[in-house]
Write a structure and sequence with these properties.
CATH topology of the largest domain: Aspartate Aminotransferase, domain 2
Radius of gyration: 21 Å
Strand content: 5-15%
Order of helices and strands: HEHHEHEHEHEHEHHEEHHHEHHEEHEHEE
Number of domains: 2
Number of strands: 14
Distance between the termini: 51 Å
Largest sheet: 5 strands, mixed
CATH class of the largest domain: Alpha Beta
Bound molecules: ligand F0G
Helix content: 40-55%
Structural class: alpha/beta
Number of helices: 16
């Protein structure tokens, strides 16, 4: 059999609501053309993010009922920690309410003004949390990743030569840690090879700098390694993930992605001294170290999710279904970042809409049109999100895990192909109001 099917059946459903074009026009006006400001009830298909939007399994819901809500030393914490330690090998497992809380604590402990933190590509919250300490976030993607149309197996890799150069030229003590984001979200959801993580590791060891993984989508990355990296096909996704973590000194993790949880994060390390400082900060803002801003039931959902996400049948379906969306769009003439990534398809809006300059946010213009036309919400990853650090003008269609069926995806394809037929009619936007950082969440815009 060739057909890859959803490896689950649906037991509980949630209605989605159609709106008229006129209603959507009004929603856009009220939201100042910022899709983060539109209420979910007015969205038909929500591809804003794959974060916290997964469908939990029956086993996860059952585990939630077992949640031990003790303030200190709960059974839920011990169950979660055992799973994480077995997977990652890290001694210290610090729960946080989501990924960025782990980032904030890690960088508050490790970074000072003038420091540099290299990453294959920083996610927006990672960059913002580094910059909030006065340090500088440096992206070191492969030079080939600049070409959105180029197909490479591991286009998310870090440029190891550039890392080596940065570490050689930086004054001693200036780089407190190196991060590698798997998969490379801001770089198109592209995977990072084991070979690349190993090479980064060797450079880090030579310079005495710890290596951390931003491990949000570690399981999707492990599946790509299994499919694409020589010598890895006989390994299970879990064995590959264990090898990825073995190269690192610690990780940050958002359980809202590859743990199928609706909330949660982790900060892990093998460094006893850092862990002590981190738990002190944790108590200040997140909570006691055995719950860290989460309910016991959330910890149990994470424990079960971390095992389910590594099932081969699930990962095969996941990567195939995202690839299906990508292939159909590309075959229909919509320029996507090639090859399709793990959790999302990214449309190269600068290429699709050459009449809209970067200063007028082509990917946001496409996001607005996709909502107006079909009630679909996607997210701009370009100059609105990253300002002058933006490398591309992308519209990300992030696919929530186990949530939408193939006919939902066919509807998304049809909508985008219809817009592509009249793409020359689209116009850009300008910002009328913006906050000082992470502006894409709340900026107000106006069509030009
Ligand atoms: N790192 C990466 C690579 C991420 O993609 C995210 C979140 C975070 C860190 C922060 O985790 O949301 O739990 O605080 N990405 C979501 C997204 C929001 O839509 O890509 P968080």
């Amino acid at each position: 059999m060739q057909t890859i099917i959803e490896p689950f059946r649906i037991k509980s459903v949630e209605p989605i609501r159609r709106t008229t074009t006129a209603e959507r026009e009004e929603c856009l006006r009220q939201a100042s053309y910022n899709l983060f400001l539109i209420d979910a009830k007015n969205i038909l298909i929500d591809l804003l993010t794959d974060s916290g939007t997964s469908a939990m399994s029956t086993e996860q819901w059952a585990a939630m009922m077992r949640g031990d809500e003790s303030y200190a030393g709960s059974e839920s914490f011990h169950r979660m920690r055992a799973v994480v330690q077995e997977l990652t090998g890290f001694r210290h497992v610090i729960p946080t309410h989501q990924g960025r809380a782990a980032e904030r604590i890690l960088f508050a402990v490790m970074c000072r003004p003038g420091h540099l933190v290299p990453n294959n590509t920083h996610f927006d919250t990672t960059r913002a949390n580094i910059e909030a300490t006065g340090a500088e976030a440096v992206d070191l993607p492969l030079p080939e990743a600049a070409d959105t149309q180029l197909r490479m197996d591991f286009k998310g890799n870090m440029d190891v030569a550039a890392l080596e150069k940065l570490l050689e030229e930086a004054p001693p003590g200036r780089v407190p840690l190196v991060m590698v984001t798997v998969t490379n979200n801001s770089g198109g959801g592209q995977p990072v090879s084991l070979d690349n993580i190993a090479a980064v590791r060797r450079v880090c060891v030579r310079h005495g700098v710890p290596l951390y993984l931003d491990a949000c989508r570690f399981a999707e990355n492990a599946y790509f390694i299994r499919e694409r990296e020589p010598g890895c096909h006989a390994l299970s996704p879990k064995q590959i993930a264990q090898r990825m973590f073995a190269y690192a000194d610690g990780c940050t993790f958002s359980a809202k992605k590859d743990a199928f949880a609706n909330i949660g994060g982790l900060l892990c390390t093998n460094d006893d001294r850092l862990a002590a400082q981190e738990t002190n900060l944790l108590i200040l803002t997140e909570g006691f170290p055995t719950y860290g801003g989460l309910a016991g039931r959330d910890l149990d959902a994470i424990a079960v999710g971390l095992e389910e996400v590594l099932e081969l049948d699930y990962l095969r379906y996941r990567i195939a279904s995202v690839g299906y969306l990508g292939r159909r769009l590309a075959d229909g003439g919509v320029p996507i970042v090639e090859p399709p990534g793990g959790h999302a398809i990214y449309i190269d809006a600068a290429r699709m809409l050459p009449q809209i300059p970067r200063s007028e946010f082509p990917a946001q213009a496409l996001a607005v049109e996709l909502y107006r036309h079909a009630g679909i919400r996607a997210v701009e990853i370009g100059s609105l999100m990253f300002g002058e650090h933006a490398r591309h003008e992308l519209l990300r269609l992030a696919i929530p895990r186990r949530v939408y069926t193939q006919s939902h995806i066919d509807y998304v394809v049809e909508s985008l192909l219809e817009i592509n037929q009249r793409k020359h009619e689209l116009r850009g936007l300008e910002i009328v109001e913006q906050p000082p950082f992470l502006r894409h969440f709340s900026a107000r815009l106006r069509p030009l």
